[in-house]
């Protein structure tokens, strides 16, 4: 009996040891290590930039450890909230630039002095805005993405377009010819535009002089039902219904338009620079590498000659949570990560770096240069703390679907959306 | 029955062997059940006791991101509950959840019963095949099952669209399954039922194997139809198991989250809200943890109401003579 | 009257009857129906496995490729090469084995108490067991995280094990209790007549009898622990602590998900459960045939 108890206890201990040592939980914030939460995009897209930052940091702080934990977009905010509640936040965290306002307003970030950070005087305006709240800076811009039109040069040539269109009317003409020539195949789209790609819809709104919401005297008001916004959405609707056979209830990531594009179902689509390789990724996109020869890109022309359709400057920022226990170490890592060396690597991976100084990095790369050019006309979401709740409620996506499926007229849909936006942005936090 | 069987012996002796037992043994007997229950209860209590209390407490507070950062909520009494009950989205969601749960449970139990009965009749190799198939379905991680189904109903390249068009059911090319809530829900319900059937079917089948074969044969030799046999012999014997699986199905289906959440790419429109999704969106998407907790508490209360009937049944069934 | 053993495998002991042609045809009909049900249920799983073996061009095809005519293993090698695959497998196995073993032991004991004893508070406990299952998991994410964090169990496999136990136990207890209730009391009595303690009777007699129940609940515990996503996604911070499900979820949500490797990873994730079933498949028959003599 006694031997049995001893055996049982020994077994339990033996099982417990690997279980507890199998975790890395104890490498938490001690004086000589920091925990960094980056999105998996960094791990897949520009691991060299991360490695460069870490080695730079380590040469500065020889005894210190950097524990990088890659997160996915769909669970990072829950994890962050839970860690805030428990007081064990990471020391550096990456957030989307439309999510930062809420956390800044709630005091989740540590205020920093921008001038201590590299290239801060040349930070991209749209990104800098997402890091500023009540006159203070709370995070550092990390990278952005701009959208341009990716197209099939051979299909364009077959309807007589030898070069990319520089005006919106030329754009319309080419697409009309494409639909006339190939549109009988019910799978074909001259311009593949998923119905819930609200970024493009809002680009039209901005191009026509409208705004999503404005702030007057401390109160926000949704303005999608202004005449300019309605005009923009009407133009968007006309274009999409004429040229696109994409789903009206899916957004621009389900599927990535590069997939039907690779299968010949689309002559063009609007996308980010990092969507280019998806087209001929033999595992995902199913087009052979030679397909790249047929591809080109150009910034989408705007309504007025000589302008581009403003592109949404989506991107990410990195910041230091206010409950971090290693704030100065964290700051040093961020300085290394957003310095010129790492940012150049990030730009070369198909993104827009955080500084105007680095806009020319991809100028010689024909597949990435158009995206950098497109960034010269950009827009960003209203800098309201509750903005991310508008995005989470999906009301802009459902508005687009309602407009494109004719469930609601543009006027009705925008009226409902504006009322909801007003309510959400003004909700007490 | 031979007279040498233990059952025969038991039927002669009194049900309880009444002997005076020494005090120590009597005490041990009295505490035995508590001792048996202790380990399991300790684990459950350790993890759930405080969180449950915290959940209820949160529902009476205003707790947004601002409060989260400062670790301090703002007590507002029943304001959260009032807000929910005045929100039409809440009532629509509640109705939808009840309807979806009912449909899923009925379909699951009926289909699983049929499959369990079928399993009992099959040749052993087919039975093995079907059981293995059911297990493989059950083993498929929910996250993956949903992505396979999403792929099958894909707008551009989905095999479901292609097949239905070829079968002449209609023109399903570029059919957007989620555009219309009715078609979207039929996909989600199929997905839920498909995933739920294996467990129920296998549990029912396990129960079926414990049904005495003699009774069934005796009845069929006496000329009873298969339905009568099922209704009068099998069903009563399986009743405890049915009560278990039906109540569990109701509890699980009422709380369904993953299927709805992932097939709508984590951005469901209010047409696709069920209670768990509504609570999650409120808590984590708009960071209203107090409000989200109130919704969760209401969810639990409703489920408790629904299952009062089953609880009573369970307790009645569980009386030890 | 024939007297086959109760609970014996139904296939082996059919009553000796002349196999008329009608019975044979009926047999084929039933088997065909069984096959049809099998095909319908298994199709999505088949599609997943088939896609795992197809090259990219066959996956995104204008006409579906029903059977991989150019099978390739490259998707599998891509999946396995993805970082942390083997670590995730190891973590999942540790978590799952712990959950299954511990939950079976604890649940059997608790089910015994609830089914075979009368004691004060029994009804309350039963109600509690049912009530606990009604609490929606995702409402408790933050409070559970808080509790585990205080106990330094965040980002640890043991924290996951405890959390999963909590969610698996109520159901396991309830189900085993149901199976135990189905066993007649005379059998325990019979064992006690032979002079064993009540507990000894429980273990020697009841345990084998509820074999199918143990199998069903262990499968349930295995699958719950193997597939759980929401709690794991919040509780695990380091990549080297992730379970296979988290590894897979990362695969799906990453930009530019490639269907081929994803389906290959999914197939690999589902494999251990199937192997587990195959391993205990013989136990089902054993449990059945070793059942006590009934009359």
Write up this protein:
The complex is a heterotrimer of chains A (429), B (321) and C (295). Helix content of chain A is 42%, strand content 15%. Chain A is α+β, with helices and mostly antiparallel strands and 429 residues long. Chain B has 14 helices and two strands. Chain B has a two-stranded antiparallel sheet. Mean pLDDT of chain B is 82; it is low at 1-13. Chain C is mainly α. Chain C folds into two domains: 2-72; 75-183 and 216-289, MetI-like (MetI-like fold, Orthogonal Bundle), CATH 1.10.3720. Chain C contains 13 helices and no strands. Mean pLDDT of chain C is 78; it is low at 1-14 and 285-295. Chains in contact: A-B, A-C, B-C.
Task: Name the descriptors.
heterotrimer; B: 321 residues; mainly alpha; two-stranded antiparallel ribbon; 14 helices; 1% strand; disordered N terminus; C: 295 residues; MetI-like fold; 2 domains; 71% helix; flat; disordered C terminus
Ends of chain A: how far apart?
62 Å
The helix content of chain A is 40-55%
Number of helices of chain C: 13
**Average pLDDT of chain C:** 78
Q: Give the SSE order of chain C as H and E letters.
A: HHHHHHHHHHHHH
> Strand order within the widest sheet of chain A?
2-1-3-13-6-14
CATH-defined fold name of the largest domain in chain C: MetI-like fold
Largest interface: B-C, 116 and 122 residues
From the alpha-carbon coordinates, what is the Rg of chain A to the nearest angstrom? Answer: 24 Å
- Please tally the β strands of chain A and state the result: 15
Q: Give the helix proportion of chain C (percent range).
A: over 70%
What's a concise summary of this model?
The complex is a heterotrimer of chains A (429), B (321) and C (295). Chain A has 429 residues and is of the alpha+beta class.
SSE layout and pairings?
The complex is a heterotrimer of chains A (429), B (321) and C (295).
Chain A: H1 2-21, E1 33-39, H2 40-45, H3 47-60, E2 65-71, H4 73-86, E3 92-96, H5 100-105, H6 125-129, E4 132-133, E5 136-137, E6 139-145, E7 147-152, H7 153-158, H8 168-182, H9 198-207, E8 213-216, E9 219-222, H10 227-243, H11 258-262, E10 268-272, H12 276-279, E11 295-298, E12 311-312, E13 314-319, H13 327-337, H14 340-348, E14 352-353, H15 369-374, E15 378-379, H16 387-392, H17 395-404, H18 410-425
Parallel strand pairs in A: 1-2, 1-3, 12-15
Antiparallel strand pairs in A: 3-13, 4-5, 6-13, 6-14, 7-10, 7-11, 8-9
Helix pairs in contact in A: 3-13, 3-14, 9-10, 17-18
Chain B: H1 6-12, H2 23-58, E1 61-62, H3 65-70, E2 74-75, H4 79-85, H5 88-121, H6 124-139, H7 142-152, H8 159-166, H9 181-209, H10 213-221, H11 226-254, H12 258-263, H13 275-285, H14 289-317
Antiparallel strand pairs in B: 1-2
Chain C: H1 21-53, H2 56-59, H3 74-81, H4 85-116, H5 122-133, H6 141-150, H7 157-181, H8 185-193, H9 198-209, H10 211-227, H11 230-235, H12 244-253, H13 259-289
Helix pairs in contact in C: 1-13, 3-13, 4-7, 4-10, 4-12, 5-7, 7-10, 8-9, 10-13, 12-13
């Amino acid at each position: 009996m006694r031997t049995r108890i001893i055996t049982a206890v020994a077994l339990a201990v033996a099982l417990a040891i690997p279980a507890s040592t199998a975790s890395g939980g104890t490498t938490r914030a001690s004086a000589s290590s920091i925990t960094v939460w980056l999105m998996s995009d960094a791990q897949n897209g520009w691991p060299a930039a991360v490695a460069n930052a870490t080695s730079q940091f380590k040469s500065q702080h020889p005894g210190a450890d950097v524990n990088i934990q890659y997160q996915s977009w769909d669970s990072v905010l829950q994890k962050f909230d839970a860690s805030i509640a428990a007081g064990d936040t990471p020391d550096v965290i990456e957030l989307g630039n439309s999510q930062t306002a809420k956390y800044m307003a709630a005091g989740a970030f540590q205020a920093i002095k921008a001038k201590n950070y590299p290239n801060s005087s040349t930070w991209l305006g749209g990104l800098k805005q997402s890091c500023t709240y009540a006159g203070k800076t709370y995070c550092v811009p990390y990278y952005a993405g701009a959208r341009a039109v990716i197209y099939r040069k051979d299909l364009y040539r077959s309807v007589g377009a030898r070069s990319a269109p520089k005006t919106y009317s030329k754009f319309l003409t080419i697409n009309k010819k494409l639909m006339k020539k190939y549109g009988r195949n019910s799978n074909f789209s001259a311009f593949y535009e998923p119905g819930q790609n609200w970024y493009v819809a809002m680009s039209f709104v901005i191009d026509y002089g409208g705004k999503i919401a404005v702030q007057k005297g401390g109160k926000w008001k949704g303005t999608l039902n202004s005449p300019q916004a309605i005009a923009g959405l009407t133009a968007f609707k006309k274009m999409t219904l004429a040229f696109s056979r994409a789903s009206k209830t899916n957004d621009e990531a389900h599927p990535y338009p590069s997939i039907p594009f690779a299968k010949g179902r689309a002559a063009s689509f609007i996308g980010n620079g990092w969507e280019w390789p998806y087209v001929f990724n033999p595992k995902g996109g199913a087009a052979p590498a030679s397909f790249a020869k047929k591809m080109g890109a150009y910034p989408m022309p705007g309504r007025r000659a000589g302008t581009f359709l403003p592109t949404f400057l989506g991107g990410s920022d990195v910041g230091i949570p206010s409950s971090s226990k290693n704030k100065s170490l964290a700051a040093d890592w961020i300085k290394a990560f957003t310095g010129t060396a790492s940012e150049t690597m990030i730009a070369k991976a198909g993104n827009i770096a955080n500084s105007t100084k680095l806009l020319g990095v991809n100028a010689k790369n024909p597949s990435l240069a158009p995206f950098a050019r497109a960034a010269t006309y950009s827009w960003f979401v209203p800098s309201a703390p509750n903005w991310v709740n508008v995005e989470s409620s999906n009301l802009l996506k459902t508005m687009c679907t309602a407009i494109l499926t004719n469930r609601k007229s543009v006027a009705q849909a925008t009226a409902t959306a504006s009322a909801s936006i007003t309510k959400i942005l003004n909700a007490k936090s | 029955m031979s007279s040498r069987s233990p059952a025969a012996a038991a039927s002669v002796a009194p049900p309880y062997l009444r002997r005076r037992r020494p005090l120590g043994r009597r005490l041990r007997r009295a505490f035995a059940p508590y001792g048996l229950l202790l380990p399991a209860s300790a684990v459950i209590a350790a993890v759930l006791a405080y969180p449950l209390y915290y959940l209820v407490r949160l529902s009476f507070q205003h707790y947004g991101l601002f409060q989260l950062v400062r670790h301090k909520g703002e007590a507002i009494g029943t304001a959260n509950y009032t807000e929910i009950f005045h929100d039409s989205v809440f009532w629509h969601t509640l109705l939808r959840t009840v309807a979806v749960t009912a449909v899923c449970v009925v379909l699951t139990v009926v289909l699983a019963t049929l499959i369990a009965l079928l399993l009992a009749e099959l040749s052993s190799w087919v039975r093995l095949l079907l059981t293995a198939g059911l297990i493989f379905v059950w083993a498929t991680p929910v996250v993956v099952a949903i992505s396979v189904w999403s792929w099958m109903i894909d707008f551009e390249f989905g095999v479901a669209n292609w097949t239905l068009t070829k079968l002449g059911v209609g023109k399903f090319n570029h059919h957007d399954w989620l555009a219309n809530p009715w078609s979207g829900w039929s996909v989600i319900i199929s997905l839920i039922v498909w995933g739920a059937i294996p467990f129920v079917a296998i549990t029912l089948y396990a129960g079926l194997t414990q049904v005495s074969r003699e009774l069934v044969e005796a009845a069929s030799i006496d000329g009873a139809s298969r339905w009568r046999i099922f209704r009068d012999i099998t069903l009563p014997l399986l009743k405890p198991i049915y009560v278990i699986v039906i109540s569990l199905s109701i509890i699980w289906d009422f709380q369904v989250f993953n299927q709805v959440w992932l097939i709508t790419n984590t951005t469901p429109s209010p047409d696709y809200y069920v209670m768990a999704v509504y609570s999650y969106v409120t808590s984590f998407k708009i960071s209203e943890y107090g409000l989200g907790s109130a919704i969760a508490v209401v969810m639990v209360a409703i489920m408790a109401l629904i299952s009062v009937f089953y609880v009573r049944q369970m307790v009645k069934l569980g009386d030890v003579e | 009257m024939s007297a086959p053993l109760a609970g014996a495998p139904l296939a082996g002991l059919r009553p000796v009857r002349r196999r008329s042609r009608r019975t044979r045809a009926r047999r084929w009909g039933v088997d065909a129906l069984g096959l049809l049900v099998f095909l319908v249920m298994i199709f999505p799983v088949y599609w997943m496995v088939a896609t795992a073996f197809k090259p990219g061009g066959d996956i995104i095809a204008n006409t579906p490729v029903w059977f991989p005519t150019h099978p390739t293993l490259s998707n599998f090698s891509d999946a396995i090469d993805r970082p942390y695959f083997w670590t995730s497998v190891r973590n999942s196995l540790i978590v799952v084995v712990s959950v299954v073993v511990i939950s079976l032991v604890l649940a059997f004991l608790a089910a015994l108490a609830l089914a075979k004893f009368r004691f004060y508070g029994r009804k309350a406990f039963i109600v509690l067991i049912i009530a606990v299952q009604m609490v929606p998991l995702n409402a408790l994410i933050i409070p559970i995280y808080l509790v585990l964090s205080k106990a330094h169990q965040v980002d640890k496999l043991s924290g996951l094990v405890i959390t999963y136990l909590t969610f698996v136990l109520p159901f396991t207890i309830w189900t085993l209790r149901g199976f135990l209730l189905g066993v007649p009391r005379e059998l325990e009595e019979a064992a006690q007549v032979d002079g064993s303690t009540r507990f000894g009777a429980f273990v020697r007699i009841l345990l084998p009898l509820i074999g199918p129940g143990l199998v069903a609940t262990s499968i349930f515990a295995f699958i719950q622990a193997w597939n759980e996503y929401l709690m794991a996604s919040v509780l695990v911070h380091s990549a080297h602590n992730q379970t296979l499900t988290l590894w897979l979820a990362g695969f799906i949500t990453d930009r530019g998900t490639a269907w081929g490797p994803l389906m290959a990873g999914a197939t690999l994730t589902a494999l251990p459960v199937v192997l587990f079933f195959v391993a205990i498949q013989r136990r089902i028959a054993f449990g059945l045939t070793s059942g006590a003599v009934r009359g």
